[in-house]
Amino acid sequence: MSSNRFAALILLCWPAGAQTPAPAVPAPAPAPAAAAAAAPSGYVGSETCQPCHEDIYNAFQKSPHKLVDTQKRRGWEGKACESCHGPGAAHAASAEKAAIVNPAHLPPAETDRDCLKCHLNQPTHIGRIQNSHAKNEVSCTACHSIHANGPNGLVPRKAVAINELCAGCHTAVWAEFQRPYKHRLPEAAMSCVDCHNPHGSILRASAQSYAANEPGCFRCHGNLRGPFTFEHAPVRLEGCGACHEPHGSANPRMLARADVRFLCLECHANLPTAPGPIKNPPALGGVPPAFHDLLSPQFQNCTVCHMKVHGSYVNQDLLR
Amino acid sequence: MRLALAVLATIPLLGQTPAQTPAPAPTPAPVPADASSASPTPTTEQWITGTVDFGFRFTSVGGDNDVYRSVVNLGQGPRLLGLDLTIVDPKKRLFDRLDVRASNWGGDPYNTIHLDASKRGIYDFNFDYRDVAYFSLLPSFADPLLGTGIVLDEDSYFARRRMSDFQLDLLPGHRIVPYLAYGRDSGQGTGITTFESDTNSYPVADQMFDKTDNYRGGVHLEFNRFHVTLEQGGTTLRDDQQAYDSTLNYGNSYVPYFGQTLDLTNLAQAYGIRGSSIYSKALFTANPFSWLDVSGQFLYSLPNTSVNYTQFDTGNLVLEQAILFYTGEQALGFAAGKQPHTTASLGFELRPLKRVRVLQTWMTDRMHTAAAGLFTGMILQPVSATLNTPTVLSGLLVLNYNQEETDVFLDVTHKLTLRGGYRHEWGDAQTGNLLIAGPGQESSELRQQVGIAGINFRASQKLTFNGEFEGAASDHAYFLTSLYNYQKMRARARYQIVSTLALQASFSLLNNENPAAGANYDFLSRQNSLSASWTPSKRVSILTEYTRSTLRSNIGYLDPEFLTPVASLYRDNAHNASALIDLALPGYAKLVPRLAFGGSLFISSGSRPTTYYQPLARLSLPLHKGLVWKSEYRYYGYDEAFYQYEGFRAHILQTGLAISR
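Above: the input entities. Below: the structure tokens describing the complete assembly.
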């Protein structure tokens, strides 16, 4: 059978009827009617919540989560509040705080599990297991405002608001952006999520990736991606952070050292190595001694001559 | 056949009904009983809402204007400071909702516009565009002759980078969500680069243009117990660089070489770089049992580039190796490189007991860069010295990196979670020549064992504490400054003293040592931060933050000229503080003016002592419902103790109107 026919057969066999909506939770959740039957006195419906929690109720009407309340197929029609808070009958009767689940008071992992009942199987959560937020018990609700953010979604979308949200916890990182040489976050030309994926990533520091598995830096600095005929190994092995402080620095070009020569010499230390192919030297970057007089200003900034420091297409010494 | 396939493929997609995932499209206010008037907004709401903020900026700069442009670069003139519009179509024709946000148009160094449009269950469309100007001209950075009073503006540039991204998700909220995306990143500008010729280097004009196009498409499959994303993409690269000069250029060295003064009289140098790549992504998450989540990804990319290089230069130049003086040279080069790169990870979260979670991940990253080409340098004049030196170009960089990590979480009580874990990182890398083993070819290994511990204590809703520790021991690392034997600590506490006052403190530390003989790398960085948010009354709010950071780095190296051991010492001790006090002034007719003032300061000592002050004051004066007069004053003061000529002071006054409905 030709591959085209095989593809056609698969497509034909793909049952359109199989594309019925998923239930509200991966493990089949009871439909409202079924839930009511299972626990007839448990669920009271969102409108019962309204008189006491009017502000939340009104804000929720504009929330994307309102879909839970309006769509029968999600399994919680008219009971969106209880889809997260659990059956509310006892609470409605007694007005006791203890009579209802409040995800905000649960351990973060349990709160997350509540959200992930519906949201686990989505692309944003691929890196969740590697994510330092999840590992440090930062729950979804730390960033996502479930009730209050109105029609703008559950999380800020504007650069200024995103940066404020992140800076609320990462105060020391935000302080680095007050240095003179930095990426333009305080000016709102960028936001933290341009470089970091708060849900987690396969790269270090939850960095965004570009073109599958390249560091997200190349999204804006595509001309430095290469591949170069002569790569500068740290760019590939350690990333841009080997030489730059991307959040901000007092040094020009966000460099990690005040003088370019020291930045270079700390790796190219001229430490003695054996001649010929070198197996397991103390570190990569052993170069034959270059007889430069570092007292001469001409040699104090290596990149004046070794200008293709990110990699060169035609010169092994990164000179052109 | 293809058409038939396309039609067949469309049938099941259109047959979909939305899955349980909430669609990002906003939901209307309570739906009226009359279905025919089902509108995303009640009739009382306006279908277009938003704010337009425009004004005029005045600037006054004293000191070094080039440094001001390198650091701040705000200019004078009329500006569209902000635009934020939301259109909700009551009849839901082309879209349910359209959001447009724009900022800093009219000559500012960073312009942005973002557009989101969606129609529930049909499509989500996002467009993002940024135009960022980069200006860098810092005399202290790369001017070797600065001490003699000659400033050649070396390694400076003025370039713009423009980034645009489009993404279209079809059938959002359904089980099968196809998507298409396109992105372009381009840059162009001019600058001063260096033409390096033996024994001397010459600052020359430089022109840059590069463009990367990124096309991708894929599909999300969202089912009850698993999710799969499949994506295929590709990029194309065009990068043209040209350096040129036609003046008498003595370069950076005025010292005669064997009695002759070297100079460059003419240069035409050009790089024509073309590249492309394909890449593939396969991602999945699954929840096969209530006690097990599994996720994994497979990523593959294959970028490749080719370059054509030409160079023609004249002057009084020298080939140092042969002490051969010449007056004309031509060089031609071409090369091509490939970089297959594969990354994969697999992990699971296991919940064997109610209070115990186990996270396990494996990851591998494999990259192999191989490139080859030919470079020919030809000395053309004088004819007596004609020399042709072809050189084979070949480069190699291989990286194999692997990581395995296990974390165990134990909920000791409802309020206390402890974490313990272990990470093993290992790999190897090889650099050097593709064809010939010899000097410059190196291979190294990475072997690192990392212990992990953490604590999360939630004493109450008002008091939380989080701490994390990593300690590592290594046998090998790739570079002298890489993480080797290190300890990393982070701690953060948050305390809501009363409903109007919250405090947060954080501490982080990284101590890294590499005992390699001759290097003895010793690195310590610490950051302590304290912030407070206080709202003493409805009319006053105060946000303050203070961070103290210290960095110490000592590493040994051999002086390149005499091979004597010396040390590279770097220190950075910084104080950073910021505050914003927001006051609601007495109002009139429900219009409340607001005054905010504060700003930030950065003071550092050490290897590059710097002060950078950015105080500001803002006044918002409502003139009418939906009309606000806004004014802002900002001061920038920048000083460097070692390079006082680079300081600047700028007063910036911005005033304008914000119209909203």
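Note for the figure: Chain A has 14 helices and five strands.
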